[in-house]
Amino acid sequence: MSIRVAGLHKRFGEFVALENVDLEVPAGQLVALLGPSGCGKTTLLRIIAGLETPDSGEVFLQGRPATDLPVQHRRVGFVFQHYALFRHMTVFDNIAFGLTVRRRRDRPPAAQIRSRVADLLALVQLEGAADRRPSQLSGGQRQRIALARALAVEPEVLLLDEPFGALDTQVRQELRRWLRRLHDALHFTSLFVTHDQQEALEVADSVVVLNHGRIEQRGSPREVYDAPASNFVHRFIGASQELPAIRRGGRVAIGQLPSVSVAGPDGNYTAVVRPHDVTVDRTGPGWRGQAVGVRVIGPLVQLEIALEGRGGDPFLVELSRERYDRDAFAAGDAVRIGLRRFDLYPETSDDSDRAPPESVVLEGGPEAGRE
Amino acid sequence: MSATALPTVPRARRVLPGFGLTLGYTLTYVSLLVLLPLATAFFKTAELGWSEFVAVIAAPRVLASLELSFGAAAIAALVNSVAGLLVAWVLARYDFPLRRVVDALVDLPFALPTAVAGIALTALYAPSGWLGRWLAPLGIQVAYTPLGIIVALIFIGLPFVVRTVQPVLEDLDAEVEQAAATLGATRLQTFLRIILPALWPALLTGFALAFARAIGEYGSVIFIAGNMPLRSEIAPLLIVTKLEQYQYAAATAIAVVMLVVSFVLLLGINALQGWSQRRLGIARTT
Question: Which one of A26, A132, B17, B47 has the fewest beta carbons within 10 angstroms of its own beta carbon?
Answer without folding.
Answer: B17
